[in-house]
Specification:
With 199 residues, this protein is mostly helical. Helices cover 79% and strands 0% of the residues. The radius of gyration is 19 Å and the shape is globular. The two termini are 14 Å apart.
């Protein structure tokens, strides 16, 4: 890929970075006492056990700022879906748009993960499901993703609290159980499309 990295390279880089930081987390757990180690493990599973609005208020500025930035890039996103050449010919600054989106996403995810822990696969499943339901127009896709993402997570949290009540399953475990097969389905579908169209 001229002037950038291929998809395979980016995926391998993501896996390598994930392994590196996972090792750091294990190192911190190793030097922690039993209580702190359990709290770290529980946070890594993700959850919505926050009581009160203090954490919500603290997180809100990051989320609102990220949403605002993303919504300002809706036009550019729609053009980029048609191809980089078309987007550039229509005046879209591809690199600037990508940097803004990466920054906005990191801002939102960082603020939320600091409170709830890493609840995996939601950010992968929800946009794809919404895209299948309402199409690829980001003017409608973005608000639909926000609403459906919150609803989906509430449903998963309800299931986590009721499946083995009175005990609770961390909601991150539920989303991972659902997200694993979904991710495999995406990979198979993507590979099938590449073979079918000879790409």
């Amino acid at each position: 890929m001229k002037g950038g990295f291929s998809t395979a390279t980016m995926l391998l880089a993501g896996v390598a970075i994930n392994f590196f930081f996972s090792s750091l987390i294990l190192l911190i757990q190793y030097f922690s006492d039993f209580t702190d180690s359990f709290r770290i493990l529980r946070w890594l599973m993700g959850g919505l056990e926050t009581v009160g609005f203090e954490s919500v208020v603290n997180t809100l500025p990051f989320v609102l700022a990220g949403i605002f930035i993303v919504f300002t890039q809706v036009h550019g996103l729609n053009l980029m879906c048609l191809g980089e050449e078309i987007a550039i010919s229509r005046g879209v600054a591809i690199n600037k748009t990508r940097c803004l989106l990466f920054f906005a996403t990191s801002l939102m995810v960082g603020g939320i993960v600091a409170v709830c822990g890493p609840i995996g696969f939601v950010g992968m499943m929800v946009p794809h499901i919404c895209r299948l339901m309402i199409g690829a127009d980001h003017r409608f896709l973005l608000p639909a993703t926000l609403l459906f993402g919150g609803s989906f997570l509430c449903l998963c949290d309800t299931a986590a609290r009721t499946l083995i009540a009175p005990a609770e399953i961390p909601v991150g475990v539920i989303t991972a159980v659902l997200g694993g097969p979904f991710f495999l389905w995406l990979l198979v579908s993507w590979s099938s499309e590449k073979i079918m169209f000879g790409k």
